[in-house]
Structures are given as structure tokens and as C-alpha cells.
Design brief:
Layout lengths: L1 E4 L9 H4 L2 E4 L4 E4 L2 E3 L4 H15 L1 H26 L5 H14 L4 E10 L4 E9 L2 H10 L8 H15 L3 E7 L8 E7 L6 H5 L7 H22 L10 H15 L4 E4 L6 H10 L8 E5 L5 H9 L16 H4 L4 E5 L6 H13 L1 E2 L8 E2 L3 E6 L3 H6 L5 H7 L3 E3 L10 H16 L8 H9 L5 H15 L8 H4 L13 E3 L5 E3 L4 H12 L4 H15 L4 H8 L3 H10 L7
Parallel strand pairs: 9-14, 9-15, 10-11, 11-14
Antiparallel strand pairs: 1-5, 2-3, 3-4, 5-6, 6-8, 7-8, 12-13, 16-17
Helix pairs in contact: 2-3, 2-5, 3-4, 3-6, 4-6, 9-10, 16-18, 21-22, 22-23
Bound molecules: zinc ion (ZN).
Length: 568
């Protein structure tokens, strides 16, 4: 049987509901039937709502308040059936709108309500007068762009759905909160709304915490990839020689070939190896760096390829080697020339067959590891000297890249200095004004035998020793000034006004002046030089002659003449 409510029908009295309210003020409780209630200020709710909107955004806040109303609606539907057991469906249903009014949330005017319990048919249209949520918007948030009676709407949906035993959705088709003349809601079964699915999403608890966790893990993975690149000075430089290297590295990175990095110590081979890895398809997989020179020769096999328990004294446990740990990724073998011949043989097998056996094991394991090897000695010479296997050399030498020493790319030095300043400023939480002009000039004239690593150390020292907002002086960079003068030929003007290249440097001029100033004779100088040379050569005349640039007979003659060597 279908029941319809039309405005001309009497809006039933709700005394039965009012009687459910009990104040138990001495106990600090208010009851509605069996439910404990709260009396709270609308203004407090308004402040809360504003904060929610500001904190989680309007869409999430809307879902939040819809669900708040939803929970309340579910409980009231249960209550309505309990309180009006003998009434007709419509009277029972109207308990919902009446409860809304009773709680002071909104005055509800039913316009049309059609309920058919047999078929589950439902249609409802109601007006809301003086919604507390409209009031909240007006005081706290201003006019909204969309209907604003969120918790009221959630209540209507939950109450009616629970009442009908099927999903009924109400929509607020006009709302004073967004400037309409009145708040008006329409309700019907979910499937009769075209876009119910979208709306129902609001009633699903919002897994914001999962999103936060997800973001957190994204942040930590970004951070670790940044850490990966920290200390990275790959790509810093504008010199032609270095740019050429970078181009080659970028090309090599994308491929699968082994790469052989050549260059002096400290030029940044590991940094470049890491860059190859990070630019390759293996970037997400492990990068393992091994300095072959730092591992004792009798342990290197076990260290690289793993070991089975009992393989030798001290092998108390089976463990994987660096190659197994780098599986899927990249291994960087620095000072590869230091590998023992057995380790060289195993490495060759890894490169050729992609498999290895741990020390003391019979089981063959397959590994997929890209090898980047490095050396600061010539591998070709090591092959010639019988120290390094020729077949392994050819395998490793598929893509050789020679990294220039810093002294051959001094134009890159200022950029590298900038890079290290930034790094150490953040590491030591300092802010110096950078290198003084003199300090920079000193750096530009220095030969940097330890290359970029030495520069990094020098800049670190400078940052440590310099106060905030002061320039890094040459004294704080170098404990002892590097003697550039003896390394680089000078140009100077001689007594006749000619520019002379090389030859006597300022330093040489210095000691000459000293000798002359102390009235030391030429004979004395010669004698002193010969004695020092003889000492250095352990009294070997041929050796001393070589040091002094003389023939043996010439030196022997002078030694005898000055009485250093007895006449024979
Ligand atoms: Zn409204």
C-alpha cells in the first residue's frame, strides 16, 4: 500500500519524541531515549567546520560532515521504529524530520513524501528552514559555491535508507548557503539518480591517512634518491674535455656494456660509476662499490663472490658476495688491477656466462650484474707484465672512458668550488662568503695531484676554519702553501729588459740572493752541492754525477780537486 504525504495533511504531533529527552545534570548527562546526547554551541561547531575546511579542503570536509550526519541518521531510524511501533509508515518516517527539528538543527517542512514499502518505492521533497549549517556558513565561511547543508543531508540519506531498507539518496537541489532562496531537498532510490555512484563516494570513509603514508613513502624514496646523488659532482663542468666524458657516459649508461673508467686517483671515478648506474635501466636496483685494493688478496674472492660455510678457517657462515648483493644492478670495481688471478678468472666467468660459484660451493648461481671497472694504472701494461689476464682486459675494455685530471680542466674549478661550498655549508650549517680572490687564484694555479677529492677536502677545511659571513682565505684552505712556482715555468724580464721564458724562477732568485747576501763563495756552493749529492747517492760517484747532471769523470775530478774524494 502506498502512502503519500501532502501539505494539506496534518503534521503529526511529536510529543512522544520530546518526552525522550532527560537531563541528568548532576551526573553530567543528557539522554535521548537510550542515547547520550550533547548540547553544544553552534559557534563552536562553526569554528570546527571552518578549521576542517581549511585543513583538509572543502571536498574532504563535505564528506566528513555528510558522514557525521549519516551516523546520526542511522541511529534515529532505529529509534523511530522503536518509538512508534503501531503507527503507519508515514508517521514512523516523519519521526526523522521531527527529530531534526527537535535537536535544533533545522525546521523541516515535508512537501511530498511517497512511500511504498512493498515495492520499496520512495520519493520525498522537503524544505529546510533555518538550517544551522547555513547559519554557520554565513558567520564563518561566507557564501558557498554549492549547497552547504552537509550533515543534514547525510542524516536524511541515512535515515531514509535505513527506514526503507534500500539505498535512498537525497540531494539538496537549492540551498540558502549558496545564495538560493531556500534549502530544498529531493530524495529517491540511488538507481533513479544518474550520478549516484559519484555521490556515494562521500559516504565512504576517506583513507586520507593512507594517502599520507603514500606521500610519506614517496618523500622518503625521493629523499633517498637525492641522497644517492649527494656529493654528486657528475656533470659539473664546462670544459671541452669533461663535456666529452659526460657525453660518452650518457651514451654508455643507456646500454648494457661494461664500462672501464680510467684516470688518476681522486678524479671522481666512483661518482661517475654511480651516475652511469643512475642513468641506466638498473637505477632502481642496487649499486655496490668495491675498492679491490682495500680488500686483502686472500679474502677478495669470498668478498666478491660469496663463501660457503667451512670453505676455509673462519668461514663460519655462508654468505653472499658483493656480486650477489648487486644482482639486477651495478657493481663498481675500483682498482680492478689488484684482483688476484683466481678472482680475475671468476670475474671473467661472470662477464661471459652470468654465473658464479661461491668459494667452497659446488652450486652454480646466476647473477645479472653490470660491471663498471676502474683503474688508475694502465691495464694494458698490467697485461704485458703478466699481472692481468688479457681476455679479461678485452672484456672490460669494451667502453673505456678516460677522465681528465683536475689540472687539465681548471676552468671547471670555480663551478666545483661552488658545488662543494654548497655541500659543506649545509653539512656544517654555515654560510661563508666563498673563496677570496687570492684563494681562488691560488687554487687556479695549483696542480691538484689529488684531483677533485683533494679539492673537496681543501674546501671542507676552508669552510670549517672560516667564520660565517667571512671569505675563505688562502690560509684556511691550505695548511702549507702549495709551491706553484717550482712547478710552472715563469716569464720574467731579465736585466736587459728581455722577456725570458722559464729558466730562473722567483724561487731560484730567492736562494741566489740568499747566497750572495751571506758572502758565500762559488767554491763553497759547489762543494756543498757535491757533498749533498754524494750523501743522497750513498757515496756512489756515478749516482751523484747523475743527480748533478755531470759525467762520472767530471765529477770525480772536481771531488778530488776539492778534497772530498781522496786522490787515487
Ligand atoms: Zn541548505
Amino acid at each position: 500500500m502506498a502512502i503519500s504525504y501532502k501539505p494539506q495533511l496534518q503534521y503529526v504531533d511529536f510529543q512522544d519524541l520530546t518526552e525522550q529527552i532527560r537531563f541528568q545534570s548532576t551526573e553530567g548527562k543528557i539522554w535521548f531515549g537510550e542515547q547520550r546526547m550533547l548540547l553544544m554551541q553552534v559557534s563552536a561547531m562553526a569554528a570546527f567546520r571552518r578549521e576542517m575546511v581549511n585543513t583538509i579542503g572543502i571536498e574532504r570536509a563535505k564528506g566528513f560532515f555528510l558522514r557525521l550526519g549519516y551516523q546520526s541518521g542511522l541511529r534515529d531510524a532505529e529509534l523511530a521504529r522503536k518509538l512508534r511501533p503501531h503507527c503507519d509508515e508515514l508517521d514512523i518516517f516523519l519521526a526523522g524530520p521531527q527529530l531534526h527539528s527537535l535537536k535544533g538543527m533545522v525546521k523541516v517542512i515535508p512537501i511530498e513524501i511517497d512511500i511504498d514499502q512493498e515495492t520499496g518505492g520512495f520519493y520525498g521533497e522537503l524544505d529546510w528552514i533555518d538550517s544551522f549549517e547555513v547559519e554557520i556558513c554565513q558567520t564563518e565561511l561566507g557564501q558557498m559555491d554549492e549547497p552547504a547543508c552537509w550533515s543534514l543531508l547525510g542524516y536524511a540519506c541515512a535515515y531514509t535508507s535505513s527506514f526503507m531498507g534500500r539505498q535512498i539518496i537525497f540531494r539538496e537541489v537549492s540551498c540558502r548557503g549558496c545564495g538560493d532562496e531556500k534549502c530544498h531537498i529531493v530524495g529517491k532510490p540511488a538507481e533513479e539518480w544518474g550520478d549516484a555512484e559519484e555521490f556515494i563516494q562521500y559516504f565512504k570513509a576517506d583513507p586520507m591517512i593512507e594517502e599520507l603514508y603514500d606521500l610519506q613513502s614517496q618523500v622518503s624514496s625521493l629523499r633517498s634518491s637525492l641522497e644517492n646523488q649527494q656529493g654528486q659532482y657528475y656533470g659539473i663542468g664546462q670544459s671541452a674535455s669533461y663535456n666529452k666524458v659526460c657525453k660518452m657516459i650518457d651514451k654508455a649508461a643507456m646500454g648494457k656494456v661494461s664500462v672501464l673508467l680510467l684516470g688518476e686517483t681522486g678524479v671522481g671515478k666512483e661518482v661517475i660509476a654511480r651516475s652511469v648506474h643512475l642513468r641506466s635501466e638498473r637505477a632502481e636496483q642496487p649499486f655496490v662499490a668495491v675498492n679491490c685494493a682495500a680488500i686483502p688478496p686472500d679474502l677478495i674472492e669470498a668478498e666478491l663472490f660469496g663463501v660457503e660455510k667451512g670453505a676455509y678457517t673462519g668461514a663460519n657462515q655462508s654468505r653472499p658476495g658483493r656480486f650477489e648483493r648487486a644482482n639486477g644492478g651495478t657493481i663498481f670495481l675500483d682498482e680492478v688491477v689488484e684482483l688476484t688471478s683466481r678472482a680475475q678468472a671468476t670475474l671473467l666467468r661472470v662477464l661471459q656466462e652470468g654465473e658464479l660459484e661461491r668459494v667452497g660451493d659446488n652450486r652454480t648461481r646466476s647473477v645479472n650484474v653490470r660491471v663498471i671497472a676502474a683503474t688508475n694504472e694502465s691495464l694494458a701494461e698490467a697485461v704485458e707484465a703478466g699481472k692481468f689476464r688479457a681476455d679479461l682486459y678485452y672484456r672490460l675494455n669494451v667502453f673505456p672512458v678516460k677522465i681528465p685530471p683536475l689540472r687539465e680542466r681548471l676552468e671547471d674549478l670555480p663551478l666545483l668550488v661552488e658545488h662543494f661550498l654548497k655541500k659543506f655549508h649545509s653539512e656544517y650549517n654555515k654560510r661563508t662568503l666563498g673563496l677570496s680572490d687570492k684563494a681562488l687564484a691560488l687554487c687556479m694555479n695549483y696542480q691538484w695531484p689529488g684531483n677533485i677529492r683533494e679539492l673537496e677536502n681543501v674546501i671542507e677545511r676552508g669552510v670549517i676554519l672560516t667564520e660565517n659571513n667571512e671569505s675563505i682565505s688562502q690560509d684556511s684552505l691550505f695548511a702549507v702553501f702549495p709551491d706553484n712556482h717550482s712547478e710552472k715555468p715563469h716569464e720574467f724580464v731579465d736585466g736587459e729588459g728581455h722577456v725570458v721564458h722559464g729558466g730562473m724562477s722567483n724561487a731560484a732568485g730567492g736562494w741566489a740572493d740568499q747566497i750572495l747576501g751571506n758572502s758565500i763563495s762559488l767554491d763553497e756552493v759547489e762543494e756543498t752541492l757535491m757533498r749533498r749529492a754524494m750523501d743522497q747517492a750513498k757515496q756512489n760517484v756515478s749516482g751523484a754525477a747523475r743527480i748533478l747532471g755531470l759525467t762520472r769523470p767530471a765529477l770525480a775530478y772536481r771531488l778530488k780537486k776539492s778534497g772530498i774524494l781522496a786522490e787515487g
